Amino acid sequence: MVFLLSMFSPFADLYVGDASAEDTLVCCDSVPVDLYLLGSASAGSMSPFTQDLGDSTMSATIASAVTSEETVGKWTLPNVWPGTIPANTWKVSMSYEVSDAAGAQVNATATLKIGAQTFSASTDPGSSFLAQGTGTLVFDIDIDAASISDNGLIELTLTARSIVFTLPTGEAKIEFQWGSEDSDSNIEAEIPLMDLTLLEPEVEGSDVYFSVVIDSNWGMDILSKSDVLEMRIAGTALTGDPIETTQGEGVRVTWTWQGAKGGVESVEAEIRVVLQTGSAALTGSTSFEIETFDSSGGTGTYYPPDEPLKTNGDGSPLQITGTFSLASSGGELKIERETSIKVSGEMAFWMRWGMDHIGDEVTSLSPVLKSFDAGSVSDDDRVSRTLESIEVTEFERQMLSATGSGLCAYYLSVGLGLDVEELLGYQTKEFETLSINVDLNGESDVVNHPITLVISTTKVVADGERIPLMGSFIIAQPSPLWSDYSLMLTGSTSGLTSFSGAALSGDGTSSIILSHSRLPWGESLTIEGQGIDQDDQFRLMVSPTSSPVHSPIPLSLIVLFGLVIGFFTSLRLTKTRQRGILYVELVLVPLVAGIHFLAYPPLFVGASVGTTILIWWVTSVTSPRSRTEVLQEAMSVTTPVIPCPACSTPNPVPSDERPLRFACLGCSRVIKIVA
Fold first, then answer.
1. Is residue 301 predicted with pLDDT exceeding 90?
2. Helix (H) or strand (E) holding 359
3. Are 469 and 607 part of one and the same domain?
4. What pLDDT, on a 0 to 100 scale, did the predictor assign at position 9?
5. For burial by CB atoms within 10 Å, which of 271, 327, 578, 594 has the most?
6. For 380, which DSSP code?
7. Axis crossing angle, helix 552-573 with helix 588-597, rounded to the nearest 10
8. Residue 110 covered by a domain
9. Which residues contact residue 536 at a Cβ distance below 8 angstroms, ignoring those fewer than 6 apart?
10. 248 CB contacts (<8 Å, ≥6 apart)?
11. Are residues 358 and 423 in the same domain?
12. Does residue 49 share a domain with residue 124?
């Protein structure tokens, strides 16, 4: 079959090459797969992906002898793709641990329900003794050929008919374990999982777009959790990010090939999927005849006629940066803020594609994109594979129109999965001013290239009110829209305002760093994090204030004058005393300056200043008198003088009485004269 891409492309006037072939189902019948046991013992599930194994182990404990049938656990797999299951032997492996006994004699049965049929196997007499420690209990279950429908399921039930502990000591027990990498209990099965269909390639100039449709109940999981998902052309894997769209009930994944030689040629396309590390690859291939031309008709990225998926299941990179400032004007405290949301990956492509479809009445769009009307965008501008300035301007206008403040919140929350109030601190309608600008980052084509939303806001806040500057802003989705994200916000205050009491709380603070510093001319507040998991919870709270006690300039002056007055008072107290120790204690000044710089609360700063002054005063009144002062005093009297054996300070002898004891004027040691 021959077709022209212009029949499928959004451009009716774009000349494209030809491809000759038919959509071909290339895979898969029933395939070998490990189904891992997950969840609780009463309502467990199964998954073919090792990524679903958790860090903690689930278990079912039997702590006493069993004399009648007891259910250990039940696990269900509802996502079976319809097809035929061949006759084979399935292996059920269940991890266990026997403790406080030499072993346990176990008589257990594993029962598999596949559709309407039931198969089971029991422990062999020779292998039913489980020794103390850990191990794996294995059941080999013979399965007859069976058909399973779209509504069919597979269910595993593990029961124990009798368990007897040998030489029990204390609380003898056996734990059956599953659900973690250390205890990966599983079923080695052979079932249908998906259909892989290679579509006719679409040719645009010298670009060729190869697509595969994944029909499976695990469509998104196969995209995100498969160890390998790649398209090979002539034996070489295609690089670059593919474009994902829905096609019927399946997921269509499209790669761009730019290795055509020109003219008519026959190429072999192969799709390759590896579900689990170490498992066999699921492959399918077919040959296509294509005709390409040496032209620049394409952008190097497939432009789907239908709305692309926002995620491939892994999520896209997200980068949040911005600045904010606090100042006092007209007796009011005002926070001015600029927040940049830089989006990459599938989400960036979805945003660009959506802007290029503003006002599209032909294509079926999601409610978020459908909420934008055409405005000033003409039919010539729309669906052009390039974001014209009018499309960007119209997008910005409608985000902030009379109903746009609500549209802004709707787009950010429903479209991007971001909690506006947690991201910006307030709902959009609460800001005094709000503006949004789109930065295409140097690329105007609809391709997989980062795009940035720059949101500028101003907000008047009450003096001393405790407010959130930012919190955990990722809204949980069935399939993650974001992988992880980075965060970098930097704030500043004027010399007469303060971010008092800045504090970061939540279980995600280990991946986020908060730094708060104070200089005489203003404060600096920074929150920074890299590779933050979207499940990490945090919140940054501050109390903006213009209080002189908290503001940098008044507080710096209080600290400066307090230290100066305290030190000069100490100098007066030591006018006739030694000052060496007092000078050494000047090292406390940098300590006070450090406490002030690290933006400790005024109470701590004041306490450090008061403590420093108190130490200086105590030192001043307890310092020994200076030798010069003592010598002058001694020389001014006519009584005999004797030098101190310890400090050599001359001391007048106050009496002729012998023996005589008196304190040294220099070091206060007792001097005794016996003759």
1. no
2. none
3. no
4. 37
5. 271
6. T
7. 170
8. yes
9. 472, 506, 507, 508, 511, 512
10. 213, 215
11. yes
12. yes
**Residue 308 located in a structural domain:** no
CATH value at residue 275: 2.60.40
Among left, alpha and beta (phi > 0; psi -120 to 50; other), residue 636 is: alpha
**Residue 259 contacts residue 206 (beta carbons within 8 Å):** no
- The predicted-structure confidence for 122-149, as pLDDT tens digits, reads as follows 987 666 888 889 999 999 999 999 888 8
In this structure, the answer to whether residues 253 and 396 fall within a common structural domain is no
Which residue has 């079932």 as its token pair? 191
User: Domain boundary residue among 490, 518, 545?
Assistant: 545
- What mean pLDDT comes out for the span 503-512? 82
Number of domains in the chain: 5
Same structural domain for residues 567 and 506?
no
- pLDDT tens-digit readout, 252-300: 999 999 888 888 999 999 999 988 887 888 899 999 999 888 765 566 7
Q: Which residues make beta-bridge pairs with 274? A: 228
Number of H helices, E strands in the chain: 11, 38
Sign of CA pseudo-dihedral 656, 658, 661, 666: positive
pLDDT value at residue 148 = 85
Residue 339 burial (CB count, 10 A): 19
Question: What distance in Å separates the CA atoms of residue 324 and residue 337, rounded to the nearest whole number?
Answer: 4
Whole-number average pLDDT of the chain: 86
Domain hosting residue 171, numbered range:
34-191
User: Is residue 228 located within the same domain as residue 125?
Assistant: no
Q: Are strands 228-233 and 263-274 parallel, antiparallel or unpaired?
A: antiparallel
What's the rounded Cα separation, in Å, for the pair 213 and 194?
10
Report if residue 415 sits inside a domain: yes
